[in-house]
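User: quick one, sequence for these tokens?
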């Protein structure tokens, strides 16, 4: 398989007609948060320092630059690198579901707060405990680190009596959707919306129920959607709820702080500390790509009727996820609510991923 290949901006389909000013505004939005958290990679290959320097430069230029100046900014300071495929783009969103702070006959299925013994671990700690280097959470005990409770154990009551219930939902499938998406708005009634965000996971490996149902012949790669998957599980009743246990990874949540909920046109804060931008933010493999990196996507997206429309777009690495593995793999943040969810659930797109790699600082200076 061929490796990454440097290409020219003229090789990017749709580049001349792109809204470069909107892309530059998205880069500036990202930059102000990245400069606070200073992104890095484990192997240092993604030029995090150059990215931070370009973030400072973009903010100094301001968002009032012309479309031509915005286009020149990217062409001068970034090198397009075609990533070897096959590439895959999926979608995610921020759900809005009804819920309550106390259980009743209707709202009986909890989302949980993070247990006190669930801690973050780094790659070295994970490997020393016998986990893969990608494991980022574990239970800390007297004898070291171990996986926290699996989804099956939680569904069987492992967390009961610990006062960890954050909010109560109508059914286990809405809870599962929120686990997959990583954040949500909970409609408490009377106009009250409670934003909740990811706060940790069990450390247990993520297993895709969609892949399992494809292997069972229920769906094909072309027909599966999130709505279809959930409708199928609901049709099975209690057996469908028990199928959720096939994914042992379990997610914990907390109430979002004031600046972490949806801000204007933006979504919740992502793993990079950046409020998500609909159709501009993607989740990537955090072990391969630095947060904040721009990517050029060449693919097509299905509309509500299923008709595929070309999608040529600059997006930014703002998030990560357990199911996102590999260099040419991304999860596009579509937006908030049911319509965004329907769109996100349809995405399973073959995609050409082109990373816009910051040029080395010395190279940028030589071009000036």
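Assistant:
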């Amino acid at each position: 398989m061929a490796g990454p290949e440097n290409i020219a901006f003229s090789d990017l389909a749709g580049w001349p007609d792109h809204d470069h000013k909107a892309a530059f505004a998205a880069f500036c939005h990202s930059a102000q948060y990245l400069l606070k958290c200073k992104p890095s990679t484990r192997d240092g290959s993604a030029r995090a320092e150059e990215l931070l320097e370009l973030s400072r430069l973009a903010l100094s230029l301001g968002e009032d630059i012309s479309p031509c100046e915005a286009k020149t900014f990217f062409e001068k300071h970034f090198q397009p690198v075609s990533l070897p495929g096959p590439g895959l783009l999926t979608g995610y969103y921020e759900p809005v579901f009804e819920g309550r702070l106390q259980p009743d006959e209707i709202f009986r299925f909890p989302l949980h707060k993070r247990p006190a013994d669930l801690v973050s671990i780094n790659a070295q700690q994970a490997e020393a405990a016998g986990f893969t280097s990608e494991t980022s959470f574990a239970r800390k005990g007297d004898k070291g680190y171990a996986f926290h409770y699996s989804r099956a154990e939680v569904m069987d009551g492992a967390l009961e009596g610990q006062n960890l219930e954050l909010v109560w939902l109508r059914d286990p499938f809405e809870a599962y959707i929120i686990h997959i998406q990583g954040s949500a708005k909970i409609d408490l009634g009377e106009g009250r919306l409670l934003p909740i965000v990811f706060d940790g996971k069990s450390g247990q490996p993520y297993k895709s129920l969609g892949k399992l149902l494809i292997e069972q012949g229920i769906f094909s790669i072309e027909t599966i959607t999130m709505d279809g998957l959930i409708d199928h599980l609901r049709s099975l009743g209690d057996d469908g709820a028990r199928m959720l246990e096939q994914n042992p990874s379990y997610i914990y949540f907390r109430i979002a702080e004031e600046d972490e909920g949806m801000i204007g046109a933006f979504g919740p804060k992502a793993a990079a500390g950046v409020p998500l931008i609909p159709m501009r933010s993607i989740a990537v493999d955090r072990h391969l790509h630095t947060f904040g990196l721009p990517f050029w996507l060449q693919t097509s997206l299905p509309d509500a009727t299923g008709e595929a429309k070309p999608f040529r777009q600059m997006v930014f690495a703002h998030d990560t996820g357990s199911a996102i593995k590999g260099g040419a793999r991304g999860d596009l943040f579509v937006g908030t609510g049911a319509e965004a969810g329907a769109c996100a659930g349809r995405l399973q797109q073959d995609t050409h991923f082109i990373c816009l790699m910051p040029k080395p600082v010395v190279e940028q200076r030589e071009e000036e």
